[in-house]
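To whoever is on call:

I kicked off a structure prediction for a single chain this morning and the downstream step that reads the tokens threw a length-mismatch warning. I double-checked the sequence; it's 441 residues and nothing unusual in it as far as I can see. Pasting both halves so you can look.
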Amino acid sequence: MEVQPSPAKVVVIPVKGEIAKPQLYILRRGLKEAIEQKVDTIVLDMETPGGALDVTFEMLKALDKFPGKTVTYIHSEAISAGSLISAGTDEIYFAPDGVIGAAAPVMSGGGEIDETMRAKIVSYLKARVRTISEGKGYRWDVISAMIDADYELKIGDQILKPKGELLSLTAQEAMKAYGTPPQPLLGNGISTSLDHLLDTLHGAGNYSVVKLEVTWSEKVAQYLTALTPLLMAVGMMALFIEFKTPGFGFFGVTGIVLLGTVFFGHYIAGLSGHEPMLFFLLGVVLVGVELLFFQGVFVLAIGGAVLMFVSLVWAMADLWPREPISISGDVLFRPLANVLLGCGLAVLGFTAMLKFLPKGSLWNGLILESAVSGEPEERAVQAHSLIGATGTAVTALFPSGQVEIAGKRHEARLAVGHAVVGTPVVVTGQSEFSLIVEVVS
């Protein structure tokens, strides 16, 4: 019995409009998911006037990671950066009215680059194109003629582009054959539509296709990733305040939302999956259990803090499926620097809050207004004098919280168990930071 081959898996990724980070994000995320799902073919659905050169290089690096076939389908135009990205794919197909070319570098505002700097950039671009065009016919020569106005494109005795101008090609010109044996100048074919191209590549009805789209989330993610250290700093400050104040409210929600935004932004940017957020939440749970039930043990809190730190670095690292982790600036050092910067900003911010903001209800929770005042030795003596005094829990004790004794609030911790608000307690001892109490039977 003959076994029928399974349908090919195809993912179509849009590269439309100006080349910017949203296009990089959806390409990187789509490629990683395609690798995990063992997709056969990636098709770039291209229609772009060009864009940022640094983003273009990142997109070329991402395309090089994909083990299957990569194809560009040029709808109407692949100009400037679009022609470089097209050159980085295995095959290039055109719509009947498609155009490719004019890839000379210019300033972001469209102005001319200094002649010396232009020469350096053009030389670098041609070297990059050489590496991605090896074994692909005339591709290097053609793209070089699009990059460098001083490059003469000549095949045999025929000059296709003289010096002094940049090359652009229509679909028909790109498909014209030259040389012996004859081969197309640049393209692999002309297709009337994307569906027609997919039928050409895999046969009608012999493939399944997933089409991605750039949405608002990719556009927002470019700003979220740029603000990562600030979002982390404010989020960590909010969670710290929440841990130091009774109940759960505004600061807890704010901290979770801000740190969740960090993970969301880097997931949309194609840098991480869901796993880093799960590890971060596990770290938060461990720290919470330490603070609520096992204060002074430190093992849970340290383990939780390590998980939270590692998960934040993990979320920003550009890791690829089925590839070993390499220690480099992009993979580890840059994310690590972002996390350390966020932690440093959080410490500075909280220090500034304690020093400059006026005391009020918030500070009554953060810095307890104890009846014991004065120098450390004096405070210790006065706290010792409270042993045997009775009071009432004004916050839940799990096992730590606050109690009220003779009209004053004090930090307190139950020796064992927990207590709800309003529970009568008696002071049985003292620690460095709080009173030790027991529930009055």
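Update from on-call: the warning came from a stale cache, not from the record. Cleared it. Sanity check on the structure: Residues 367-381 have pLDDT under 50 and may be disordered.
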